[in-house]
Write a structure and sequence with these properties.
about 400 residues, eight-stranded antiparallel beta sheet, about 40% helix
Length: about 400
């Protein structure tokens, strides 16, 4: 399985200048490729191939006065930028044909030098390396200091250098993990749970445990509002405005990092303790268009479920998603009777058939587990027999013999 590990970089002033050149050159090559494709489309001609674009936009462009500075950066960075343009067009056409899952994609657009997030990618051909001192040696940039937070499990196949909106630099490595090592990383377990995701509590488990919602965005709103007001008062184009923009971006990055860390810790704990996990396939995009939009985004359900999904795949666990239209909140888990619809203000209700008093969220978590076929009766048979989907696999992260932070 491929994983991606990200580590914080601390380039010095000269290295930051070299990285800025590399970001700019990669952006120019990408934009030239998009323009060449668009010019061919308007002229009714076939799209130029990747080889033709590479020869014209990189090899020949380096010999011209207008593009001679492309030779100041690694050629691999420029080639990878062309590949990114090819991938963007391939995804666009697949989206038009309906063969690509997810929302429809638009045609590739030109990148701006004012984009707050920029990146370049180095493959093995670029001859980048990790020095004995733990620095990341990049061609035509130098040995950059890295804050290792954990070991890399194997040799990386590529590294992407990222500059985010908060002006922080990261190195993101792609690594193939060892399936045998992953299989023994988690202890054996015969437990299974259902999870009901919510806003009052982030998650309620079928074991009746309730996990509070940290509400990272809500707690940081006062600081964010103050930083945003300061930004709005700065003159556009000034250095003080750029400083204020970075301050706002760092405040948002702090909220994002805290939320991601919470999701990682909780998902890892649940995967470690349970062999099978059932969750509801929520329509987050639909809920994000309601008056609860800010709270829904603050909870980050999609990111949490995605972590459960890839970790279950990596460690040989089972993740089951049940349909979003299952009446989990109004079905009595004791007798199976289905009651009428209930507004969100109703947190407890009594079954009119058997008289059981239900906590709304706990009852829903138990019903999610039952609907997934994970609940077991006294004789050991599933309460609701049915096939469980095959185990899902996980995608990417890495490490190195010193330390680092996972993406």
């Amino acid at each position: 399985m491929q994983l991606r590990y990200a580590f914080r970089l601390y380039p010095d002033a000269g290295q930051q200048t070299a990285l800025a050149k590399a970001f700019g050159c990669a952006r120019v090559v990408f934009n030239d490729a998009v323009r060449a494709r668009e010019d061919a489309r308007r002229a009714g001609q076939p799209f130029p191939t990747a080889g033709q674009l590479s020869r014209k936009l990189i090899t020949e462009a380096k010999q011209t006065k207008e593009r001679c500075w492309l030779g100041e950066v690694s050629a691999v960075v420029l080639q990878q930028s062309l590949r990114d343009a090819e991938t963007a067009y391939r995804n666009f056409f697949a989206s038009l044909k309906g063969t690509r899952k997810g929302p429809r994609l638009g045609a590739p657009r030109l990148k701006s030098r004012k984009d707050t997030r920029q990146s370049i990618r180095f493959t093995a051909n670029a001859r980048w390396s990790i020095t004995d001192g733990g620095r990341l040696n990049l061609p035509k940039i130098g040995a950059v200091k890295v804050k290792w937070s954990r070991r890399l499990p194997s040799t990386p196949s590529s590294v992407t250098v990222i500059r985010d909106a908060a002006s922080r630099f990261f190195a993101s490595f792609v690594i193939d993990t060892d399936p045998a090592a992953d299989a023994t990383a988690m202890p054996d377990s015969d437990q299974s749970i259902g999870i009901d995701l919510g806003l009052t509590h982030f998650a309620v488990l079928s074991t009746r445990e309730k996990i509070d919602s940290p509400r990272f965005l809500r707690r940081a709103e006062k600081k964010l509002k103050k930083a945003q007001r300061e930004l709005s008062r700065k003159q556009k184009g000034s250095k003080n405005r750029e400083k204020a923009r970075v301050k706002v971006a760092r405040a948002h990055a702090k909220v994002t990092d805290a939320r991601r860390e919470f999701h990682h810790q909780l998902s890892t704990r649940l995967i470690r303790e349970n062999q099978a996990i059932a969750v509801e396939d929520l329509s987050v995009a639909g809920l994000a268009r309601t008056r609860l939009a800010k709270s829904v985004h603050d909870a980050g359900w999609s990111q949490f479920v995605a972590m459960l999904e890839y970790k279950a795949k990596r460690y040989g666990r089972t993740l089951v998603k049940i349909g979003r239209f299952e009446p989990t909140s109004r079905t009595c888990h004791a007798c199976g009777a289905v009651d009428g619809p209930k507004p969100l203000s109703v947190r407890e209700w009594t079954c009119r058939v058997c008289g059981t008093v239900h906590d709304r969220d706990t009852n829903a978590a138990i019903n999610i587990k039952t609907a997934a076929g994970l609940a077991v009766s006294a004789c050991g048979a599933p309460v609701r027999p049915g096939g469980i989907p095959a185990q899902r696999e996980e995608t990417g992260s890495l490490g190195f013999p010193t330390g680092n932070r996972a993406a």
